[in-house]
Design brief:
Blueprint lengths: L7 E4 L5 H11 L3 E6 L13 H6 L4 E4 L5 H13 L2 E4 L5 H4 L4 H7 L4 E4 L16 H8 L1 H4 L14 H24 L3 E4 L2 H7 L3 H9 L18 E6 L11 E6 L3 H10 L14 H6 L1 H12 L4 H10 L4 E3 L3 H7 L1 H6 L2 E3 L11 E3 L23 H9 L3 H10 L4
Parallel strand pairs: 1-2, 1-4, 2-3, 4-5, 5-6
Antiparallel strand pairs: 7-8, 8-9, 10-11
Helix pairs in contact: 1-8, 6-9, 8-9
Length: 403
Amino acid sequence: MRPLEGIRVLDFTHVLAGPFATRLLGDMGADIVKINSVARATAINATNNPYYTMWNRNKRALALDMSRDEAKRTCKDLCAKADVVIDNFSVGVLDRWGVGYDLVSALNPDVIYVQMSGMGQGGPWSDFVTYAPTIHALSGLTHLTGVEGRADIGIGFSYNDHAAGLHGAVAILAAIQARRSTGKGQRVDLSQFEVGVNLLGPALLDLFGNGRAARPAGNRLPYDEVAPHNCYPCAGAVSDDIADERWVAIACMSDVHWHEFRRVMGEPEWSSAPAYATAKGRVTAIEELDRQIGLWTGQLDAAEVMARCQAAGVPAGVVQNSIDLAENDPQIAASDFLMTFDEPNPVIGTTYGDRLPLTFSLTPCDTYARVRDVGEDNASVLSDWLSMDSEDVVKGENAGYFA
């Protein structure tokens, strides 16, 4: 039995942040009922889209055309049975569908109602339509994760969506515990924008305490005198394409690391220069230091550099690509972290995924059900949650409101 068995979640989420939150809960055993419709199952919401396939495993699929009054009535009945109702639409969508918090909480005082909007409820930007790149930009993450002289780059992938999803899952678990103590459900307002700002941490402290505005630092640590601390080119590229370049990250966080790293390199003459004797000196001379290290790493395979450094206790890691992770990484292979779903997807065939990165000794979470097509679980969900018989389900499907 998984930890969250018996928890019912009505899932209106889409794209990544919300689906990631509910995927975590589903992996841990909650009954996640994913609401979608034929009309909405397009582009990134299509069940054969890689995004949808990635973030919506371990969920049952119920089709509701929320433009239809019959579907809205069924949805209200489902909300009355749910432990959790969650969405990450722009503010007001569920209200327009007739299942806003005021109505649902009146029907179901125990409900935990989570709204993961981009900007949160209230405020002049609450109606903004947001995706990860705009959240990254507004929150300051794009600025701080760029490099000096480039304001147009930053985190490329949906980092804040993952962070918001984790916040959403933790909030639900906290609200479940609070309900055990108080006997009452509650509404949770999660601002994905504020999640991003919250990640700035030291940059905000530096501004408030010292009046210094943070600047992009690339791979260098902005608040510590640490060097070398960078990614360095290596040999072994299979082509001249930039995507095939090989790199290794090396982080000498102390003088002890630096002295061990010198030994790894064979104590070249240049490394004994007085400027490199202290962390402050190495930071001051960082450009030449990085150039010299790059000349050494450039003659070696990235995995060999990592192995030599790690054997000496120096933090180092290959800058891995997807092929490295899927085919060459011995740690991932040893833990079976990447897996194939037992049941092929009826549309796209064999699908792959990453396991929940948590191991429970008493209640293992090792069940992974493939992504379901729109409405594939209409009969089982409506029977389990509402005791609806199969004839009524078929009637609703034929009429188009369970579609």
